[in-house]
Write a structure and sequence with these properties.
The protein is elongated. Helix content is 26%, strand content 36%. The longest helix has 18 residues. The protein has one domain: Hotdog Thioesterase (Thiol Ester Dehydrase, Chain A), CATH 3.10.129. It is built from three helices and seven strands. By secondary structure, it is of the alpha+beta class.
């Protein structure tokens, strides 16, 4: 099952475009972060637990977003996040962002995260985490 999160996009600094007011690019980046957080939580993992209990961190190594259509101030969006790849010491999340009102796909992309320990050295996900995420990925096929 894919994890979905629905939130209201509230752009504090909307930018003027030829078609009207559009959302700031940073707002969609925050939506991807929220999608990852909710994916992890629904998979039984909390970022806080990874950091505080297991001393593992997931810094962003790469982020890519294709902006397909604008979201406007106060639009309700649906963020669909799913596991793209679980590597030895990295994780790739895939994201799709839709307007709730029209179901139009407005952005898609991915984020790649290193998995590092407290000394900032690459490390593997804990077995329990890998099992949980792998099971969720297999259920999505």
């Amino acid at each position: 099952m894919d994890v979905e999160s629905i939130m209201t996009l509230k752009c504090a600094l909307p930018m003027r475009t030829r078609t009207g007011w559009a959302s700031c690019i940073t707002q969609l980046s925050r939506a991807l972060e929220r999608g990852r957080t909710e994916f992890m939580r629904n998979a039984g993992l909390r970022y806080r637990d990874l950091e505080e209990k297991q001393r593992l961190f997931m810094p962003v190594m790469e982020a890519h977003v294709d902006y397909l259509a604008p979201a406007r101030y106060d639009d309700l969006i649906r963020v669909r996040t799913f596991l793209g790849e679980l590597g030895g010491a990295h994780v790739i999340f895939r994201h799709e962002i839709y307007l709730v009102e029209t179901s139009a796909l407005i952005a898609r992309g991915h984020t790649k995260h290193a998995v590092v320990n407290l000394l900032w050295r690459p490390t593997r996900f804990p077995d329990i985490s890998a099992t949980c995420c792998t099971a969720r990925r297999l259920n999505n096929r």
